[in-house]
Amino acid sequence: MNLKNLSQQISKIFLPRLGEVFFTAVFAAAIGLGPQMMNVDGDLGRHITLGNLILETGKVPTRDVFSFSKIGDPLTPHEWLSDVFFALSHQVAGLDGVVWLTAFVLALSFWLVYRQSLNLSNMSILALAGAFVGAGAASLHWLTRPHIFTILFTALWTIEIEKVRLGLKKGWLIFPVLMTIWANLHGAFIAGLVIWALVFLGEFFEKKKNWNQLRVLIWIGPASLLASLLNPDGLGIWKTGLGFLGNQYLVSHTAEYLPPDFQNPAFWPFLVVIGLSILILGLSQRRVKYAHLFLLGSWTAMALYSARNIPLFIIVAVPILCDLAARLLKESRGSRLVDAFLNIQEKIALTENTTRGGFVAVVSIAGTLILLMNGAQLDFQGTGNNFSSEVFPVEAVDWLEESDLEGNGFNYFPWGGYLLYRRWPEQLVFIDGQTDFYGEDLTRAYEKVITLQPGWQQVFREYQIKWVIMPANSPLTAYLDDSLNWDLAYQDRLTNIYNLLEE
Amino acid sequence: MPWVEEKKLYPILALILIFIMAVRMPMDSDMWWHLRAGEESLAAGHVYRIDTFSTTRTGESWINHSWLSQVLMASLFRLGDFPALSIWVAACAVISLGFAYLQMKGHPLLRVAALILAAMVASVVWSPRPQIMSLVMLGLLSWILFSFRKQRKSAYLLSLPVIFALWGNLHGGYVLGLIYLVGFLAGEILDKGLFLDGGDGLSWKEISLVAALTVISVFAVLINPFGLDMWKIPFNTIGVETLQNLINEWSSPDFHQAFQQPFLWMLLGLLAVVGVSGKRIKGYRLVPILLFAWAALVARRNFGPFAIISAPALADQFQDMLQSWIHKARQSFSFFEQFMQGAEANKASFNVMGRNLINVTLIGLLLVATGIKTVQVNDPGLISRTEREMFPAGAVEWIQEQNQPIRIFNDYNWGGYLIYHAPEIPVFVDGRTDLYGDEILTDYLDVIFCKENWEQVLLSYDLDRILVRPDSCLKRLSTASGWKELYQDQTSLVLGK
User: Fold this and answer.
1) CB contact under 8 A, A263 and B244
2) Which of A41, A46, A69, A120 has its CA 20 to 30 A from that of A90?
3) Per-residue pLDDT tens for A126-146?
4) Domain boundaries, chain A
5) What is the pLDDT of residue B73?
6) pLDDT band at B349, cuts 50/70/90?
7) φ and ψ at residue A411, rounded to 5 degrees
């Protein structure tokens, strides 16, 4: 082998491909945002605690063990497998491990979006741009919670179902397998069945039907539906999921189910994708495949209805938009700008073909884990991956651990998971982020207390509340400050703890 | 030939239906201060521009960008009380959508369907306020540019500076027109750049002409009592960061609420018909749609402009889609071809007298319904009851009976009502957000949401009365701080030191 060949072989291995650059960029960004991903959502503590319990006992609890308000009530553990993954990563590398796992899952998910966009459009620049904008739009939901597995499985599912649609895949057994895992990872596995229904309907409406394709497609739905029942609670997983979605009160009181607020700049990348959808479809001179149109329309509606669907919209929509944009560009040949773009694209495609890639991604994944396990702080803020004392009652719980407070404590809803992480099993919570389990009655009771609605004191009596942990600047603390029955036992910048005096 | 031809019958029926939808009880929190400002202008014989309505900004100059609409509103109110205002709102809604109808092609039924959907979207912003005039002006502007593009007569464009000079005095929403013009030009250029203009795009000379008149129109806006200040208005208003916390219509849409969902249907309907028809939307329509969809998603007060701008494209694409479907169905299914031929023959043989009778009856029935609805919504008893449910009428009467000079902290939505009904009581805040700015509005929010500093804010403005809703958190906190409940009814609560 001469020197030139050797250098070519080396560069083939070491030079990254565009997709790999993208993967590494998303992974690095997610690692950098670690503290934010952990601290925006209050449920991580609960997930780790439940995961640890499952690993210790070898059983998935189907009755509540975390709250005094509903202890022993039947519980649908629809995220148990995610919780186990979070607990395992926590056992390996603490909270750094959880962030690493999340970053890896997110990077993999959006790399799949890039791959799918490239497969459909055959234009790497478009695929890269689409995947970057998409990852930006979805970044609001880059959080250390089981939802990340739904993002990953939606990407896998969409790719596989598109293969069936295009006639590139003849079998359907992969779908029930994926669904079995998905249904145990996260309650939003229903998204897979929605995607299937839309694609099936779309293909059914096509004038030129491929009956072999339809035969494969038709099996996917029922088989996956049955597969979703292979979980610790069987049919209960459907009852819980649909029951929650059907409850207007709970949905409207769960932050992630609220519609996107476009006054918040964090939602603007999503707005850009919607704008691109209008522009690309508006300029398109060909009929869009019904399956793609149904997917695009339905997921746009779902994402505008609930912000938590934005990442799923991105995964479904970006490859379709890249495909349409590529067609549009090809139809516009002759325009100087378009021709210049297509020339650059051809050159990049030629360069891409000379590299194999993979090295940079593997090194960054492994290297990051090693660095984190050795105490490196890789986040942008340089604070390390910890529960922030600006968000969670870190110092107050330190004090609680030393205090002799006894009995039931009324807690601020977003702090429930953190309290479990620090204090379970010594202390149980009144409520935490698992709204689908606590239900409307208890959530209303909680709301009644924190907004001091008539009858709030009755809630305290009913649940025999002996102490209260709440944010310092809240109507309830303002009231308790002036009350003669309650003693301010602890106070810091974030938290007040009150103790009920003997009546 | 029937008296009212089919192609005229459908739009007449649709526009009457839209009038019925839009004729509502004129009851809006901002309506009151617009009426008072209009009356002040009429009484003084010059534009009201120095604030005398509030304690917080009294004596300061105010860019009263809607003065002409306010004068119109006050004159109508003098002339015909509440019914005149409700008819004015409905007429503006009909005219604005009428301009959209004139830009549609295809079967009248399809056009009417798109128009009704647009009306459902826009109905969210139909209220007795100057912004309704912006809908009319936007409809007019889009029709003028459409007509210019179709007939290539430059005379149409000469009206642009006149429109903007008028618009600049009617409402600060003239900026919507400028956005539309920029979108129109960008769309034409996009088509040219991508070789997609299909041969009927504007020439570079025509594009330059529109651009030149756009620039002239920007300057035409300055023909108003506030001169250069009128350019500041859009920035002043959007620059108020607390706006979306205070005013629902400035916040992003919430599609959990059914009344906001028609926007979603229209947006998705547009995407669907474009995707299925396989025919592209011309750039001069596409780019404004994009811009107004963007604006509507950021602030739902832009639903109306989006509906007016998008409805013609929706109708045209719908027509293209159905035409292609019907053509294919006629070729593919013989029974469908027979059915269509039968339908055409039946229509031709239908008695002209019978058609006249049906058409006139339909129009007559809808006109009767219009009259009934107009009378119903303007029933004095109903208006009085609604006023007392929405506004602190009882509290205002009680305060006036006390006949004491007071400095009041009031609910934002009641500022206008106080200004109109109790001009002797200067308000803390009202709907003139551009006047108050973030400084006052942040203080307002701190008090109304019972933040820690609520009492310091009240002290800093030397306020001795609080006028809020009975379920306000201030009720529970203030009693612990020495404030007393002086008056309470089902709508309002007055607290005093």
Assistant:
1) yes
2) A69
3) 999 999 999 999 998 899 999
4) 12-41+76-361, 394-500
5) 96
6) low
7) -120, 155
**One-letter amino acid for residue A130 of the chain:** G
Contact: B297, A274; criterion CB under 8 Å? yes
**Is B480 in contact with A262 (Cβ distance < 8 A)?**
no
**Interface residue B211 vs chain A (CB under 8 A):** no
Interface check for A271 against chain B (CB to CB < 8 A): the answer is yes
Q: For residue B320, give the chain A residue with the closest CA.
A: A287
Partner A contacted by B278 (CB < 8 A): yes
| B451 contacts A473? CB cut-off 8 A | yes
Alpha-helical (H) ranges within B278-332 are: 283-298, 303-332
Residue A392 has pLDDT above 90, yes or no: yes
Residue B322 Cα distances to B8, B274, B276, B279, angstroms:
21, 12, 10, 12
Burial class (CB in 10 A: 0-12, 13-18, 19+), B103: buried
**A-chain residues within 8 Å CB-CB of B325?**
none
Cα–Cα dist B275/B318, whole Å: 11
Q: Supply the pLDDT for residue A434.
A: 87
Answer whether residue B159 shows pLDDT above 90.
yes
Look at residue B72 and tell me whether its pLDDT is greater than 70: yes
**A43: closest CA among A254, A189, A357?**
A254
ipTM of the complex model: 0.85
pLDDT in tens, B365-387: 999 999 999 999 999 999 999 99
The dihedral over CA atoms of B65, B67, B69, B73, expressed in degrees to the nearest 10, equals: 140
* Residue percentage of chain A with pLDDT more than 90: 65
For residue B253, the chain A residues in CB contact (below 8 A) are 259, 304
A216: left (phi over 0), alpha (psi -120 to 50) or beta: alpha
Task: Report the mean per-residue pLDDT for chain A.
Answer: 90
- The residues in A 416-455 lying below 8 A from B, measured between CB atoms, are 451-452
Pick the residue from chain A with its C-alpha nearest to B197: A283
In this complex, do A297 and B272 lie within 8 Å of one another by their Cβ atoms? Answer: yes
CA angle, A166 as apex, A160 and A171 as ends, to 5°? 50
Please report, as a single letter, which amino acid is at residue B398: W
Q: Which of A259, A337, A482 sits opposite B252 (nearest CB)?
A: A259
Range from A24-28, A244-248, B108-112, B291-295 carrying the lowest mean pLDDT: A244-248
With contact defined as beta carbons under 8 Å apart, do B491 and B474 qualify? Answer: no
- Two structure tokens written together for B69: 């609409």
- Across the interface, of A267, A288, A473, the residue whose CB is closest to B275 is A288
Q: Say which residues have a Cβ less than 8 Å from residue A393's Cβ, sequence separation at least 6.
A: A412, A415, A418, A419, A469, A494, A495
Cβ contact B297–A271 (<8 Å) = yes
pLDDT classification of B38: cutoffs 50, 70, 90: very high
Q: Which is it for the CA torsion B77, B78, B81, B86, positive or negative? A: negative
Q: What is the pLDDT of residues A295-325, one digit of tens each?
A: 999 999 999 999 999 999 999 999 999 999 9
B469 close to B492: Cβ distance less than 8 angstroms: yes
SS3 assignment, position A486: strand
**Overall pTM surpassing 0.80 (yes/no):** yes
The pLDDT of A440-459, averaged and rounded, is 89
CB contact (8 A) between residue A482 and residue B480: yes
Q: What is the mean pLDDT of residues B5-15?
A: 86
Q: To the nearest whole angstrom, how far is the Cα of B443 from the nearest Cα of chain A?
A: 16
